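Q: What structure does this chain adopt?
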Amino acid sequence: DVLTPAAGQNEGQGRDGVRHVGVGGRQLANQHFSLRRILYRLVQSPGFRQARSRITLYRNENEVLIDGPADEVVCSFDQLTKEKNHDKLMLYWGAIASAGRTPDGKLWLNASLVRGGVSVAIYEDIAQQFLDAFEIEDLEDLAGAHVLLAGRCLYADSGKPVIRCGAVRYIVVRRYRDVI
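A:
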């Protein structure tokens, strides 16, 4: 059964017969996106980066991990600051300039070729799972890819920001294939 909207509400017909009803001309609807889809929107839409659209990421079915407007819970690598991001759990995203592996098994995704630039640390306990999940055979294939992850940003004594990724389900990589 479809209820008739009350007076003052604005009806709008969506695609495929889906109806959106909003108050005061605004169409409000919950949308469920994967991290991959959110990353795509961040890369393609500068407006989405500053949007007040609410993003909620769940740790499990009932426990919220991150919640808030996109412009408050999402930060690009090039906008990180110690004052705003140190020890803060958020969604972080940006392009990968290089990737490497240390002798202790950690994977490092570097957002810059500069020594003090942002790095994403993927610890040895999930490193192979990460490589398998994104079908990465050569770390050089990650150069130029975009990444979005839920993680905590910590600043080293040297001033270098490091974002720790604790689970493969909280990271997504979007690689760009060369057209031959």
